[in-house]
Amino acid sequence: MLKMNLDVGNIRKDFPILSQKIYGKSLVYLDNAATTQKPLSVIQKINKIYTSINSNVHRGVHYLSQLTTNLYEETRKIVQNYINASNSSEIVFTRGTTESINLLASSFCRSQCCKEDEIILTVMEHHANIVPWQIQSDIIGIKIKVIPITEIGEVQLENIEHLISSKTKLIAVTSISNVLGTINPVADIIRLGHSYGIPVMVDAAQSVQHMKTDVKLLDCDFMVFSSHKMYGATGVGVLYAKENWLDKLPPYQGGGEMITNVTFKKTTFNKLPLKFEAGTPDYVGVIAFGEAIRYIESVGLNNIYCYEQKLLNYATEKLMQIPKLKIFGNSYFKSSIISFLVDDIHYYDMGVLLDQFGIAVRTGHHCAQPLMNALGIDGTVRASFAFYNTKSEIDILVNAVRHITSIFRAKQKVKTQFY
Hints:
Helix content: 40-55%
Strand order of the largest sheet: 4-10-9-8-7-5-6
Distance between the termini: 64 Å
Shape: globular
CATH topology of the largest domain: Aspartate Aminotransferase, domain 2
CATH superfamily of the largest domain: Type I PLP-dependent aspartate aminotransferase-like (Major domain)
CATH architecture of the largest domain: 3-Layer(aba) Sandwich
Number of domains: 2
């Protein structure tokens, strides 16, 4: 059941960093698409692990190792339940979304692709879902096909179907653009891919923290995401894959724990998912990730989604009232990300000056240069919201943008008069 309103005041108390001052002004943190802040429960969990139970996982028979291993594997089950996977063995821990995609690209292309085979991506992909496939293109000779977008930043199924051929081996798409905020129709894309016998990977780095995710309902073959965008620690990511795919794919890295037996003649690999988890994992970060998921669930994903949509709508309405401000990404199906430019003010200048107001935004190409090229720009200013943000913070952003814009326009007027 949905709450009428989140108690954002109390929620903010759980995030100590939000109470600090930047240049004497209250911090307004609007860079959540890059990374989210961490609640006290996560910070305390990390501290507790290091001060009371720290020990390497899986291989130890002593008490601390057994305890840490149990907590590590408990987090795997927490992630399984969070995305409704069939089995915890379908959850592979990595160092982040980027490594998850690199793992998949390497293992999938090595075992499933030949020269001239094709991978389909969208033009709005993060570099992490472009470059790994390009590396495999250099190694194997696969080809990359790119789905274009409409003027409002949406992909259309007919454009995908037009690209599919007998050589298409995988469709890999972002669920939410980290620039445009567009919520892609991944369920429809998966159905389309499967109708041609093509597996689909979903980059969920920008979606799992904002809305309910059900991999069974979606029927995706692969999904990737990161802890640090979900109020957890950095250095932890997830590759979800259907068990039959994990059985077929070869290991990405070799080393300890991913083996059953090693001789100089032959190595046999461990059971799933350990087959893909070579070496000592970031077990502290993984256990803290479980705590972060508990926190998200205590707030409620439906509550988070509804509240953040209100923030998105409010911010869009207010920013659009500023003359010559352009928002990139105007799909009706959109998450809490706004990328914008104002007149001819460089995004870097805008970002630096907003920082002087205590406002943290992202500037640049946001690791999406092909999308920027398609849009005909070099970069944007990006404000991205989380459930601990408020309408009053959006007002501070809007007023600051207005003030900065007025300064630039006044200088431009003086310059014009002088010449």
